[in-house]
Write a structure and sequence with these properties.
With 248 residues, this protein is α/β, with parallel strands linked by helices. The protein folds into two domains: 5-36 and 169-245, Rossmann fold, CATH 3.40.50; 40-163, Rossmann fold, CATH 3.40.50.10090. It contains nine helices and eleven strands. The chain has helices spanning 19-27, 44-48, 65-77, 93-98, 122-127, 146-150, 184-193, 209-217, 234-245; strands at residues 5-8, 30-33, 37-41, 59-62, 87-90, 110-112, 133-138, 155-165, 178-181, 203-207, 224-226. Strands 3-8-7-4-5-6 form a six-stranded mixed beta sheet. Strands 2-1-9-10-11 form a five-stranded parallel beta sheet, sandwiched between helices. α1 packs parallel to α9 and α7 packs parallel to α8 (209-217).
Length: 248
Amino acid sequence: MAINKILVSQPKPSSDKSPYYDIAEKYGVEIVFRPFIKVEGLTAKEFRQHKVYIPDHTAVIFTAKAAIDHFFRIAEETRFNVPETMKYFCTTESIALYLQKYIVYRKRKIFFGKSGKLDDLIPAMVKHSSEKYLYVVSEANKNDDSILDKNKINYSRAVMYRTVSNDFAEDEPFDYDMLLFFSPSGIKSLMKNFPDFKQGDIKIGCFGAATAKAITGEGFRLDLEAPTAKAPSMTAALDLYLKKNLKK
């Protein structure tokens, strides 16, 4: 099996200590970071058209770092000074820690879950049932919010950003032996950029059940998938796959 060049459809890691670099060196492969999608913020004018007012809320729900960036951007553009009393509910600790980019991190007003799902936050939200929550989402968000409704959480959905295709230039090479995807939007972008794409010997891997479904839904072969019990991350899955399949 010949795998020389791998496309990881995510931004280039900010740290030189990324496991991807270790894998590239270990197996002698080239790894290219090239997102198929990019996040685009709604303008303040577009946000106002949704008739959702940030000052009416006392707490914010974040499920992504991009949501944090665009919440504080919209707040600034609409001239809203986020009060120190604002409470933040994040689906993971990593997202919660990202708040340090904008505020002084105080655990007394920041709560986070472990699984990345809203379910983890429900006990804390119920405990703070008097809060009016602002749920920051993307335009294409299809998360099941019934868990919030079921627990009678007082919240408003606030669309502040959208995911769009990060189009390839006409002269941009597409000579990869493996493609790794992290969202269904990435698959949509692949088909938009290359409507006649034929998988052939190209290996395709992904992170997450929704992404896997999008890949097989297009009729493509899924060669590796994460997370699994043995590979909780994409880098772990890639390492195992290359160890098993690359000829020595």
